[in-house]
Specification:
The protein is α+β, with helices and mostly antiparallel strands. It is built from eight helices and eight strands. The relative contact order is 0.14.
């Protein structure tokens, strides 16, 4: 079978990520290094073909400022809105929690920095944030929803030192959420 001119291995890997609700970022954080993502490259190189194929099965491929891609379906907007809301709440809580702790949120942009598991869980124990976590039906310790939502979906990367940093898409979402003037330049 011709596979519509697409690389079979790449298209299978892309499909697996998209169906699992993951974002495909321009760069992957692998063993302490930012490396160009082969899945992202294949998507960019064949975007029109992928968009056509995914539209046939009811998906739309969306770009995040040209730095990442994800899929959506019009018949699953309620479910996807809940995931998006959880991502937004988690990023907001982590950003506010870092500030409350006296830590510059720019640490999330630094691959040599990042936020530790201990710090994430401490943020989850801040009274105001603990109330929000409970109200949103998220689990404690806070690292559970961070791993299950932010890491699993490609918003955060977890470093080899068990620290969390923002992915390409995560950086964009974080900056938009806090309406910052590119907080990453502080790092």
């Amino acid at each position: 079978m011709d596979n519509f001119g697409l690389d079979t291995l790449a298209s299978k890997a892309i499909y697996k990520d998209f169906i699992a609700g993951k974002i495909i970022n321009a760069y992957d954080y692998i063993e302490g290094e930012w490396l160009p993502s082969p899945k992202f490259r294949d998507l960019v190189d064949n975007l029109d073909q992928y968009r056509t194929l995914y539209s046939l099965i009811g998906f739309e491929i969306n770009s995040v400022n040209g730095e990442a891609f994800f899929v959506s379906r019009s018949d699953r907007t309620e479910e996807l809105n809940e995931v998006a809301a959880n991502i937004q709440v988690l990023l907001m809580m982590i950003g506010r929690g870092l500030c409350t702790q006296g830590t510059n949120p720019a640490i999330l942009f630094d691959p040599r920095g990042g936020v530790s598991v201990k710090d994430i869980d401490a943020i989850g124990n801040i009274e105001e944030i603990a109330r929000i976590v409970k109200a949103c039906g998220l689990q404690q310790p806070l690292t559970k929803p961070v791993n299950g939502t932010l890491v699993e979906r490609g918003i955060f990367h977890k470093t080899t030192q068990d620290r969390y940093i923002l992915s390409s898409a995560g950086r964009i979402f974080f900056n938009e959420l806090f309406d910052s003037n590119d907080i990453s330049t502080v790092a």
